[in-house]
C-alpha cells in the first residue's frame, strides 16, 4: 500500500511541476497578447487530474498534509541556503600587493 501511495505522490508532484510550466506559458502568451485558450484547457485538465489523484491518494490511505501552492513557495524560498560570495581571484586581497618591491 505504501508503494501505491508513494507512486501517486510522485505523479502529483510531476503534474504540479508540469503545471508551473504551463502557467508560465500562459503568462507569456497573455503578455504578448496571444491566444492562450489551448494552454488554459490543458491546465484545467491537469488540475482535474491532480484532484482525481488526490482522491485516489486519500482512498489508498494517504493522510499527510498536502501543502498548498502558497505553503510550497514560502517553504522553498525560506529554506534556500544563502549563497556565499566567492572572492574574485583577479582582485588582490587586502594587505597583499601584486607589485614586487
Please explain how this structure is put together.
Helix 1 (2-31) packs antiparallel against helix 2 (37-59). This protein has 3 helices and no strands. 2% of the residues are buried. The protein has 101 residues and is an all-alpha fold. The radius of gyration is 23 Å and the shape is elongated.
Strand content: under 5%
How can the largest sheet be summarized?
none
| Number of separate strands | 0
Mean pLDDT: 78
Along the chain, the helix and strand elements come as HHH
Estimated radius of gyration: 23 Å
Supply the helix-strand structural class: mainly alpha
Q: How much helix, percentage-wise, in residues?
A: 55-70%
Shape: elongated
Distance between the termini: 75 Å
Q: What low-confidence regions span 5 or more consecutive residues with pLDDT below 50? A: none
User: Given the structure, what is the number of helices?
Assistant: 3
Q: What's the helix and strand layout?
A:
Blueprint: H1 2-31, H2 37-59, H3 69-78
Helix pairs in contact: 1-2
Question: Key terms for this structure?
Answer:
elongated, 3 helices
Task: Give a quick precis of the structure.
With 101 residues, the protein is mostly helical. The protein contains 3 helices and no strands.
